[in-house]
Automatic annotation (TrEMBL):
GO terms for cellular component: plasma membrane. Coiled coil: none annotated. This is ABC transport system permease protein. Keywords: Cell membrane, Membrane, Transmembrane, Transmembrane helix. PANTHER family: ABC TRANSPORTER PERMEASE PROTEIN, MEMBRANE COMPONENT OF TRANSPORTER-RELATED. The keyword Magnesium does not apply. It is found in: Cell membrane. The chain crosses the membrane at residues 20-38, 327-347, 368-390, 440-462. The lineage of its organism: Bacteria, Bacillati, Bacillota, Clostridia, Lachnospirales. Pfam families: FtsX (PF02687), MacB_PCD (PF12704). InterPro entries: ABC3_permease_C (IPR003838), MacB_PCD (IPR025857), Macrolide_Exporter_MacB (IPR050250).
Length: 475
């Protein structure tokens, strides 16, 4: 009887042992495949705060790429030293603490990139929207809750600049309605539209000149004036981007595109958070989207969001997703090897009598080892085939978990960087994985290698003994 026949009979004769090994192989193979699939997972996310409105596209910064650029800057500046690289500023203090700050050039949507997309056939018009910028109201008062401790608030109002005000996301969504005057027109300068609450509170009328300056240097910074050309009422509260009375809906003031940078002391250094592109013909929406994605810009820097808020990320998968997947592969491999060695050690220890009899009948140690290896590979082959049915589900679940962990880590890291930029609040909508033939081949090779190596390591404890020692253990 050859080793294959003996192996098959042993598998059938000891079903509990065989089923245990089968289940272990299924689990190992499935998790290893999940680690492979996670490295190339496609993450679909959705903007949780605002959706694009109508037949439009929205361009905004990609958070994964932002962190990648932060890491690149950190590598360029020697550890423990002050320095600036590509808009990232590192500063260390005598008490041992440090600060990382980014400037507007690091965070902004580049206007030249927006202009390139605007030239795509089918784009009717485009808008640039600045980040909500807190500034100091010089000759009027803001609205605030007198019962709330304002010590942690900047004590200002927030202004938002638009290239075309009617294309502002809150305006086009119908959240505000002009009750007096008009909206700001393209190419106007030093003009603003205020809420009716703020107008009534300060008895402000159309044509009034409101004054603003840098909220961080109220006493010494230059004062800029903006003429009130419109007063609006809210049909739906404008969701504040941050907590505090500075960001409350009534204190939101719409301005021309470049006024926020002036009033905040950053003249000539704008911070554009979004670019909105209006489609000429909604029937050509998909075709226009494909053309936009061909635009010659650095797509890794951006996310492109469609009318339903769905995001096609142009950056590398999802921040540290690949690193986490590789870590999973290493952990699975190490744990699998340890578990398999323990299983085969237990297996051989309980088969000492069988080994002794075979050796007494003149069977060589090599053929006995080949029998055990054959049993392991036969069970492993069945387990591997079964794992192919489990792997897609486990891979998708694992990739989703890793994506959420990466997103949470990115949010935590963002809190350690000082900036006026507020990253979009994104939710993971879907995670897509693709299991390729190459992944299946790698998984099969790893399982076979782990089984062979584990049988060899476990077999050493038996095979190094002399036949007399094994026979004496039988008695």
């Amino acid at each position: 009887m050859n080793v294959v026949q003996r192996g098959l009979r042993s598998i059938i004769r000891k079903p509990v042992k065989s089923i245990l090994l089968l289940l272990v192989v299924v689990v190992i193979s499935s998790f290893f495949m999940a680690g492979l699939a996670g490295q190339s997972a496609s993450i679909k996310t959705q903007d949780a705060t605002r959706q694009a409105v109508g037949a439009t596209f929205r361009l905004e910064g990609n958070e994964a790429n932002r962190h990648k650029r932060l890491d690149e800057a950190a590598k360029k500046i020697s550890e423990g030293e002050d320095g600036t690289y590509n808009g990232v500023i590192f500063k260390h203090f005598a008490d041992g603490s440090s600060m990382v700050k980014t400037d507007n050039s690091f965070e902004t949507i580049k206007p030249e990139d927006a202009e390139k997309i605007a030239q795509v056939d089918g784009i009717e018009e485009y808008n640039l929207i600045t980040v909500s910028t807190v500034v100091n109201p010089v000759n009027f008062k803001r609205i605030e809750d007198s019962d709330v401790d304002q010590s942690n608030d900047l004590g200002g109002v927030n202004i938002r600049g638009n290239r075309i005000m009617e294309m502002d996301m809150d305006v086009s969504a119908g959240k505000i309605e002009i009750v007096d005057g008009r909206m700001i027109q393209e190419n106007e300068t030093n003009v603003c539209v205020i809420s009716e609450e703020l107008a009534q509170f300060n008895q402000i009328t159309l044509g009034a000149e409101l004054q603003f300056n840098n909220v961080k240097d109220k006493e010494n910074s230059r004062i800029y004036s903006a003429k009130v050309v419109g007063i609006y009422k809210t049909t739906q509260k404008i969701k504040p981007v941050m907590s505090g009375d500075s960001y409350r809906s009534e204190n939101t003031i719409f301005t021309d595109l470049h006024f926020p940078e002036k009033a905040s002391g950053e003249e000539g250094n704008p911070l554009f958070q979004y670019a909105i592109f209006r489609v000429d013909d909604v029937r050509a929406y998909d075709r226009i989207k494909a053309e936009i994605e061909k635009a010659d810009i650095d797509w890794e820097r951006y996310d492109l969001i469609d009318s339903d808020g769905n995001i096609k990320s142009m950056a590398e998968n999802f921040n540290d997703m690949e690193k986490m997947s590789k870590m999973l592969l290493v952990l699975v491999s190490a744990a699998s090897f340890l578990i398999l060695v323990l299983i085969f050690l237990f297996w051989m220890k309980n088969r000492t009598q069988e080994i002794g009899i075979l050796m007494a009948l003149g069977e060589s140690k090599k053929r006995i080892w080949l029998q055990f290896l054959t049993e392991a590979l036969l069970i492993g082959s069945i387990g591997f085939v079964l794992s192919l049915g489990v792997s897609p589900l486990l891979s998708n679940a694992t990739a989703s978990y890793l994506a959420r962990q990466t997103q949470e880590q990115a949010a935590a890291d963002a809190g350690s960087v000082s900036t006026d930029y507020v990253a979009p609040e994104l939710t993971i909508q879907d995670t897509e994985i693709s299991i390729t033939g190459n992944m299946v081949a790698i998984d099969a090779g790893v399982i076979a290698g782990l089984l062979a190596f584990s049988v060899t390591i476990a077999g050493i404890t038996i095979m190094r003994k002399k036949p007399k020692e094994i026979l004496s253990e039988m008695s």
